[in-house]
Amino acid sequence: FALGTGGVLRADLAIAAVRNHDWEDLAVYDHGNGPQLAIADVGDNAGVRETVQILILPEPLLPAADSTLEVQRTLTLTYPDEPHDVESLAIDPQLPHGYLLTKRTKPPRLYRFDLDGDDHQTLQLVAPLDGMPQLSEAELQSEQGFKRYRHQPTGMDLSCDGQQLWVLTYGSIQRYQRPPDGWNGALSSAAPRSLALLPLPQAESIAFDRDCQFVYVLSELSPVPIVRYRLH
Length: 232
Known about the structure:
The protein is an all-beta fold. It is about 5% helix and about 45% strand. A hairpin with a 5-residue loop joins strand 14 and strand 15.
């Protein structure tokens, strides 16, 4: 679905000849060949998938001449350790790197794949994000219902210059600054800046706009509220 910033549905498009095992996130990038869509088929609630996929296709111009799109490339990825449930995908706007962030591990783990690499790859562990907030043991015992999961990552995006990584959880946004040597192991000791979310049930989508003037956050529930944060 293509949405306007005011929530108006602009297009309803089908993707041909692919299986939706558990699509969790979208990213748009342009590395010189026009805008591309990356679809993250990476959800794994049971932790049993041997591989996950990134589907890549050109972003259609709207109004689209054809309501059916075709995937141009599929990356099949394997974790170096064990299967993970993931809901967060980000593509570096300048480098041919994509990132996945685990949801259920403590702390969350950031993995990288190579857009210029083979169609079958083993993900590279970048760093565990030790600075992400976690519930204490006392909170785990006392919290009820959905609050127990409020620190789990549900989405992320990189800024237009690739210098900031914004990680969405059910309860906050955690903002990481790129280390001097790139997105690497230094992230494990980095302290993110925390931004409290406006009341938004089951927040699971975050994206910078084209010019990085705003960040948009959406809920998974229907009707879907849209929250906009001004950056400047």
